[in-house]
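Colleagues,

For the teaching module next term, I've prepared a clean inverse folding example: a structure given as tokens, and then the sequence designed for it. I'd like students to try predicting residues themselves before seeing the answer, so please don't circulate the second half yet.
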């Protein structure tokens, strides 16, 4: 069977029942998802706290360094390992091409995680969890986090940030 062009004024013909049905289903589903976006933001678990501040990249680098000096407990492949007190502020700096520091958190405790970039746009992505966040230089994003599962999590950069992007992997350790 070959393809034959539609005859006459095809756009004036009746729309078949099945097509109407599928268009209706697609439209209803699109509306459901549209409504779910704000609802999920309010009622879903582990949502971003939408707390954002402006911060100069140099200032954030300074704050991270201060934070590292204060709570450093070791080193891993040249990257400082930091164990901050529960309830406090935690700083995570994204830069070409690493995350600093390695953060050690306690399960069930709440932290204020500050994330920013020293240079270009990076992506904060926690594996194997489905947590993704954009890291923009000049902005301090505060995520109020309460780790619910112990384990070692990788922080992967998911925004292409330059020729070393694929090696930009950080670490968050959650202990019992
Ligand atoms: Cu990257």
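(Answer key — instructors only)
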């Amino acid at each position: 069977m070959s393809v034959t062009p539609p005859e006459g004024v095809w756009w004036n013909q009746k729309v078949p029942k099945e097509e109407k049905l599928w268009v209706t289903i697609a439209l209803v589903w699109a509306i459901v998802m549209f409504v779910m976006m704000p609802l999920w933001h309010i009622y879903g678990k582990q949502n971003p706290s939408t707390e954002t501040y402006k911060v100069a990249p140099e200032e954030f680098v300074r704050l991270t360094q201060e934070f590292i000096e204060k709570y450093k407990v070791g080193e891993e492949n040249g990257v400082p390992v930091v164990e901050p007190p529960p309830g406090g502020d935690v700083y995570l700096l994204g830069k070409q091409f690493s995350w600093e520091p390695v953060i050690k958190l306690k399960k069930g405790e709440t932290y204020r995680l500050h994330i920013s970039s020293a240079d270009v746009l990076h992506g904060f992505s926690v594996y194997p969890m489905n947590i993704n966040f954009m890291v923009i230089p000049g902005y301090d994003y505060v995520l109020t986090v309460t780790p619910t599962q112990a384990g070692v999590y990788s922080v992967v950069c998911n925004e292409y940030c330059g020729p070393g992007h694929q090696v930009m992997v950080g670490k968050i350790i959650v202990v019992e």
